[in-house]
Amino acid sequence: MDKTYFKNTFHFSSDTSAPLYLQLASYIRIQIQAGVLKPGDKMIAENDLCEILNVSRTTIRQCMNQLTEEGHIVRYRGKGSFIAEQKLKRPISYLYDFTENMLRLGASPTSEVLISEVTEPADDTILSTLQMPMGQTRAFHLLRLRCANGDPILLENTYIPYYLCPGIEQYNFSNTSLYHTLTERYGLNLYHANETIEAIIINKEHSDMLKCSPRVPGYNITRISHLDSGYVFEYTTSVTRADKCVFQLDLYKNSSSNKNPIDFQRQINL
């Protein structure tokens, strides 16, 4: 960041009760969101910020600690602080919709549809997972590359019982939300999902699609979603880049919040 630009555009406000370090952190966030500060840009040295703003080193460090915890900057010993590659936060405490989540984050969501077809019959694994009724063997298969601001984020492979949504293969899901279509067009009340997140090394096939180096860390996400009637309506497996996504979970203590606590379990395979 240029010192002259910083001096001309940032001033502490006396009209707010926000601490000085939070005011500075808010300013830096806005500069990142506006594209003034880009990934890899070096921040003004902490000593220089103290001098320019006439504040203590503690204030500057509190600001930098805050931004580091949020994932906006990275710090390297002996080199300084740099703007981090921005990760997209994916909350896991509610039924996740990629399109809505990206819009909420200020990103532009797009999808490249790789497969959109009705499989007949679906293989045994799909039939079993979707708990298809007797005589129902067809499933809608949708494979999409999901992007934010044109950058590939995840490869999403979805199966839905076709008897729940006949004709759905006619929709163009490169620019249409699948969940919105299921709700608005087919009257399906999406209720809850079971999701498993596993750390993986992304293979060559998937890394080519996600435009990343092979054998980089990633996540394999398996989701089984249910309607309010209890029927399974979705079986989705996704591969996402670990450098592009961070998972966020809100936890509450049972006795001190009116909100429903989240039961978050970890399973470690030895």
- Strand residues, percent: 25-35%
Largest sheet descriptor: 6 strands, antiparallel
Distance between the termini: 46 Å
Class of secondary structure makeup: alpha+beta
- Total number of β-strand segments? 10
CATH topology of the largest domain: Chorismate lyase
Instruction: Indicate the overall shape.
Output: elongated
Low-confidence blocks of residues? 262-270
Describe this structure in words.
The strands form 3 sheets. The chain has a 6-stranded antiparallel β-sheet with strand order 4-5-6-9-8-7. It has a two-stranded antiparallel ribbon with strand order 1-2. Strands 3-10 form a two-stranded parallel sheet. The chain has 2 domains: 3-83, Arc Repressor Mutant, subunit A, CATH 1.10.10; 88-256, Chorismate lyase-like (Chorismate lyase). 20% of the residues are buried. Helix 2 (20-33) packs across helix 4 (57-69) and helix 3 crosses helix 4 (57-69). The protein has helices at 3-9, 20-33, 46-53, 57-69, 98-104, 124-130, 178-184, 204-210, and strands at residues 73-76, 80-83, 88-91, 109-119, 139-148, 151-161, 190-201, 217-227, 232-241, 245-248. The protein has 270 residues and is an alpha+beta fold.
